[in-house]
């Protein structure tokens, strides 16, 4: 019987625990009250089901500039995830200042006025420069139309044609919109 015909909330919780903590199969089975084989089987089925939702849930809304007339379309920031440094490719490029260890970075764009995740890019070595990722052919710059801008932190300096960085010269309404976008994108 396929698992999606008889879903069990406890198996979903095991999958979420697996994604957050990446425990051993013995620990996972112990928390779920199931065998190791069942724990891994259930976890991976739910993880694959969650992954299959990516195309439906992470959608760039702003290709239709007639429908979406906003200038500030997204707030972009990065999140780091701690990893073991790759043995075959040791390098300082993996260094995450957040963890002071090796890490991976993902860049996430949250739609400012729509409260949706609109763009995810990664993984990248945690030491990779935000501006370089933004400017890559599949980077966020490639998604932005002529008048569209993103709100970002200081790591995106040098992209002033597409990125707005909050500063004291902005008028109060602009700061409010930027602050709203910043609050929505807090992922760390």
UniProtKB/TrEMBL annotation:
Keywords: Metal-binding. Residues 76-167 form the DDE Tnp4 domain. InterPro entries: HARBI1_dom. Its cofactor is a divalent metal cation. GO terms for molecular function: metal ion binding. Residues 165-188 are annotated as: Disordered. Pfam families: DDE_Tnp_4. The keyword Magnesium does not apply. This is DDE Tnp4 domain-containing protein. Residues 165-179 have a biased composition (Basic and acidic residues). It comes from Cylindrotheca closterium.
């Amino acid at each position: 019987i396929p698992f999606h015909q008889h879903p069990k909330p406890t198996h979903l919780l095991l999958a979420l625990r697996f994604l957050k903590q990446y425990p051993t199969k013995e620990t996972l089975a112990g928390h779920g009250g199931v065998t190791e084989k069942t724990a891994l089987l259930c976890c991976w089925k739910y993880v694959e089901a969650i992954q299959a939702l990516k195309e439906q849930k992470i959608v760039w809304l702003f290709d239709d500039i007639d429908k979406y007339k906003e200038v500030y379309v997204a707030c972009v920031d990065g999140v780091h995830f701690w990893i073991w440094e790759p043995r075959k490719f040791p390098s300082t490029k993996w260094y995450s200042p957040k963890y002071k260890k090796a890490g991976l970075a993902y860049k996430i764009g949250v739609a400012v006025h729509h409260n949706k995740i609109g763009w995810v890019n990664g993984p990248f070595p945690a030491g990779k420069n935000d501006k370089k990722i933004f400017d890559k052919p599949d980077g966020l710059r490639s998604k932005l139309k002529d008048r569209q801008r993103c709100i970002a932190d200081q790591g995106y300096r040098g992209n002033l044609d597409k990125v707005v960085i909050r500063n004291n010269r902005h008028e109060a309404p602009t700061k409010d919109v930027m602050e709203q976008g910043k609050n929505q994108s807090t992922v760390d």
